[in-house]
Amino acid sequence: MEVALKIWRYNGETGERKLERYEVEAPEWACLLDVLDLIKDKVDGTLAYRKSCRMMICGSCGMRMDGAAVLACKERMLPIVERGHVPVISAMGNLPVVKDLVVDMAPFWAKLRAMKPWLEPGYNEPEEGKEYRVSQQQMNVINKESLCINCGCCVSECNAMESDPEFLGPQALAKGMRFVGDARDQRTVERLEDYNSEHGIWDCTRCYFCNQRCPKGVDPRDAIAKLGAESIRYDIDRDMGAKHAKWFVTSAKTTGWLRETELVPKTQGVVSAIKQMKFAMSLAKHGKVPLPFPPHVADDVVEARRLYNLVKEQGRDGALGIVQGERALAHIGLEDEPDKAPASRIAAEVTPGKMPPPAEG
Ligand code: SF4
Ligand code: SF4
Ligand code: FES
Questions:
Q1: How is 265-281 classified by DSSP, letter by letter?
Q2: Ligand 2 centre distance from Cα of residue 152 (Å)
Q3: pTM given for the model
Q4: Could you tell me if the CB of 158 is within 6 A of ligand 1?
Q5: Deepest in the core among 75, 110, 125, 325, taking most CB within 10 A?
């Protein structure tokens, strides 16, 4: 097949940037990475990009196709050629470009290191020759986070990082959850304290682009939600984001509705609420917000309270509750379109929840 690509070339020394069009003959099974290799071999040896495994494992070949991050070794070209489309290839976003499609990953690795991505075991060493085992149910909490290959596709598309480059970002926080949720780790509270600091979990804008672009089904936004839920479970709620989330829960439990008019005082404090009083009155005058008193109580509020109590009783008010929600969604996905359910969600369904038998001897 004849494949055409437009590639944004960048010269790091001169700062020159230009869009070049390339056309090569490629086999029908070719992926984007194969086409780049053909261009480099046959047309222009100066084209720069990263690659290694060619099988979606090493995470080296992240780049943008038509403005959205992809792994070049995952993108099949045949359907694109059949549509007669000429995709535009560029370097990943939110990281400094070094040359053509190569970005400087140093800020990415620095944030990963800030997560302290290693286990700090919270148990005594087992007797010689023995090992500790973690149940499948315990591992399900971090099943998706463990799939990350550090490709940076999520970081490339992160809205929050675009406005605040210091934001820890989806990949680092997903890695953080991988250790917070690990039953063997003892630094849970310290880790959560770190991730709750400035530029941490509550700065995420919940745009979900990271979930959408991750090629491995890690769903980093869900990992950040788990970190938020765990933070509140451990009473780490000093951030306005945490207070905001807590008020949603209190509000739903007490009235079955979101009590919007009380959201500002409960989240930002009374002083800030007083400062915004004039604005609030004008909203109320134009019927944009309901009056706080008497609060509107849903007819079936008792159901909301029952649900709240059940979650508390079963200890599902942290990450476990979110995992349960994912599993419920996976059921819907599997029933409707079994072929399209993400691999990670199918894996999460393998949940015997049984501890393996103790090692013999
Ligand atoms: S959901 Fe949050 S972490 Fe993910 S891309 Fe959007 S802002 Fe970034
Ligand atoms: S979370 Fe997904 S997109 Fe982000 S670095 Fe890991 S594998 Fe890549
Ligand atoms: S070359 Fe390794 S993930 Fe694409």
A1: HHHH-HHHHHHTHHHHH
A2: 6
A3: 0.86
A4: yes
A5: 75
Between CA 68 and CA 112 the distance in angstroms is 22
- In short, whether 175's Cβ falls inside 6 Å of ligand 2 is no
Percent of residues in the chain assigned helix, strand, coil, to nearest 5: 45, 10, 45
Task: Identify whether the C-beta of residue 69 lies closer than 8 Å to the C-beta of residue 93.
Answer: yes
Note the pLDDT tens digit of each residue in 323-348: 888 777 777 766 666 555 554 444 44
Alpha-carbon torsion, ordered 206, 97, 177, 347, to 10 deg:
90
Closest ligand to C-alpha of residue 94 is 1
pLDDT band at 292 (very low <50, low <70, confident <90, very high): low
- Closest protein CA for atom 8 of ligand 1: 158
d(CA 268, CA 88): 44
Helix, coil or strand: residue 102: strand
The bound ligand whose nearest atom lies closest to the alpha carbon of 149 is: 2
